[in-house]
Amino acid sequence: MIEWLTSLQGSGLENIELSTVLMVVLAGLAAGWVDAVVGGGGLIQLPMLLLVPGITPVQALATNKMGSIFGTTTSAITFYRRAHPDLKTAIPMAVIALVGSFAGAIVATMLPASVIKPVIVVALIAVLIFTALKPTAGTLTELKYDGAKHLSIAALIGLSVGFYDGLLGPGTGSFLIIAMVMFLGYSFLAASAKAKIVNLATNAGALMFFLPSGHLLWGMGLILGLSNMVGGYIGARMAISKGANFVRVIFLVVVSVLIVRLGWDVIAG
């Protein structure tokens, strides 16, 4: 299979060592699992791609999106079958998030990530403090609004987080979950189920820009995609079986790592 992938023009696997391919596979498995539970798999996957010899940052971002869309599709289907998320909120939110992600991908080719990373770190710290100090938040679904106001806030969340995903990416699922918990009143599990559908749309929106631009490394993306599917399926089943408290704990861990990772980028940059 590896020989076939390396024969593809622009596969991103020309002259690549087997050990590097195996590391990409492991990163894809771990990223798929994390994304399915709380989001933030890009923390694992994107840095690994940037270690591949000869890959550019934009190629890594595009290939990361292709790998992620396989995983988010798998986890979204698993959540839908087992947790039955409210599609009346999730679908409009996903459509608007797709538009936001497409716009963010356009800006990503023009704006250095260092411009927005400090803002993201501050936002993540606020999210971590809120989640840690309010242990009951996200335990049960207690919707704060209904009707048009509920959908309007959901749309604003989708647009904002979708734009961020196209522009930078890491932690998108985490931002979606905490926004739905804080501003809409969903439990962590219910928010996670909807976040997979929205995250699928944000990945698709970014890919709509990256595919015709020629930045995508097809072979590498396919390897990541298959790995993400396996990780996403396992992660979604675990999240559903273990419930909101499990998702909350993993969420706190992932957000903490995000703060350290992006904070280091800001300091080092």
* Domain unit count: 1
What is the overall number of helices?
Answer: 11
DSSP strand count: 0
What radius of gyration results from the CA coordinates? 17 Å
Percentage of β-strand residues? under 5%
| Helix amount | over 70%
Structural class: mainly alpha
The main sheet comes to:
none
Q: Helix and strand succession?
A: HHHHHHHHHHH
Distance between the termini: 39 Å
Broad shape? globular
Low-confidence stretches: 4-10
What does the average pLDDT come to?
84
Detailed description of the structure:
One of its GO terms (cellular component) is plasma membrane. InterPro entries: TM_pro_TauE-like (IPR002781), TSUP (IPR052017). It comes from Neomicrococcus lactis. By secondary structure, the chain is an all-alpha fold. It has one domain (2-268). Helix content is 78%, strand content 0%. It is built from eleven helices and no strands. It has helices spanning 2-6, 18-37, 42-50, 57-83, 87-108, 117-133, 147-167, 172-184, 188-213, 218-242, 244-268. The termini are far apart. 53% of the residues are buried. Mean pLDDT is 84; it is low at 4-10.
